Amino acid sequence: MSMNRWYKQEGTTGTFQSMLWARAVLNASRSHIGESWGEFRVYFKNNYLGVLWDEDALRRVSQKVLARSKNGLPPGWVTELNNIDRELTNASRSIFQCPVSTIPLSELHRLYDLVFELDQRMWNISIFIDTFDPGYDQEEIDRMKAKYGFTDHEAQVLLSPIEPSYLHEWNSALAQYQKGEVTLDYLKQQYFWIATDYFSFSELTPQFIQEASTHHHDDSWHSPLDEEADILTAHSLTYNPLELFRTLTQWRDIRKRLNYTGVYGLMRILHEVARRHGIQTTHLNGLYIEQVDEFFAGKLKEDTLRTQHQGGLLLVGKGDGSVSHVYGEAATNEWILLTKPTTQISPTEIRGTVASRGIAQGRVRIILDASSDMSSHMSPGDILVTSMTRPEFLPLMKLASAIITNEGGITSHAAIVSRELKKPCIIGTKNATEALKDGDLVEVDANAGVVRKL
Known about the structure:
Blueprint: E1 6-12, H1 15-33, E2 40-45, E3 48-54, H2 55-68, H3 75-97, H4 105-126, H5 136-148, H6 152-159, H7 166-178, H8 184-191, H9 206-215, H10 225-234, H11 243-277, H12 292-296, H13 302-310, E4 313-317, E5 323-327, H14 328-339, E6 349-351, E7 353-356, E8 359-366, E9 383-386, H15 394-399, E10 402-405, H16 413-421, E11 425-427, H17 432-435, E12 441-445, E13 450-453
Parallel strand pairs: 8-9, 9-10, 10-11
Antiparallel strand pairs: 1-3, 2-3, 2-4, 4-5, 6-13, 7-11, 8-12, 12-13
């Protein structure tokens, strides 16, 4: 396949955690939309994740979604996500509340299977959102702006969620906790999953809460509905033509919360099984989903998990739903070949999609992993440049005067959080982490979607 047809994503994650959504890609598009994602490649090594998607296939899926959602997302999809939200949260909360060290292995396996099934249902109903990320959401939004004569500001209001993100609610809860308005037990019951992310498992301890409290922001959240009503009246409209993309923004936020909720339940069980079998939990990120039964039975050796975690794995997905695997050095070599730049990148101007308007100048800080040593180099006013942001990037995003990402559409995490933080943000540049160097002085014009080297 030609390199210019690949849409690249990358980040920090465990192999096990990413296999949860990778499985959904193989069948969800057919079951809910009737369209294949086409060929794709997923590469894992040492908590690094790289993905290559077929851009043409993603466009086909996104267009099918638009065709099926002319009057909003299908009601059956909405009902399914609401049911999963309740069931998956309750199932993982029950695992949080129970003393897993006293539960028989067979019962732990049953609980694992329950959460796993709910987690897969969650991904199956929501994975389609990612097909808009190469910019297909922005294309449709631009078409709507031209059709109805919306200004950039009006479009941003019409796209703004009518409910605060879960990170905003978490920060509000932290502020209440600091004021003595809610208890530690309340935080644990409501946010038991929030210390777990894509590659690490942690419980919500007082120490974690104390650390999070030092970074929390007390920003206010305002509903866009009053301003939206004025905009619709000015354009003689009785409905919001951009409502679908507002909904997708909220769905992505729900999905991220549910992803962490499900991963928490699964990893708490797997950590207990590892303890019983004398296996270091640091190697659990190398576990393959297909090996879980073997792992519960104590037949999977620590050396195998260590090799899988530290070695390369390349999943090769086909349009017919089948998948093959390349392991070790061969996987790494193939990934290097697939992602090797074909031309030298040295632009003085980089373009992307406006996620949050504004203009800022500062020094570039390229950080692909929020837990890496590079994070300590981030100073207030720096420009955060990354492949994509995740919740663990929030402290860095608060320090930044502006945010630039390679990936993502208007429903991405970077877009949601930057709007809440009221920070200039340009997403979907595709190559900002390669075109810019750490320490470059740049201007981020997030009114025009342009990054200029100064």
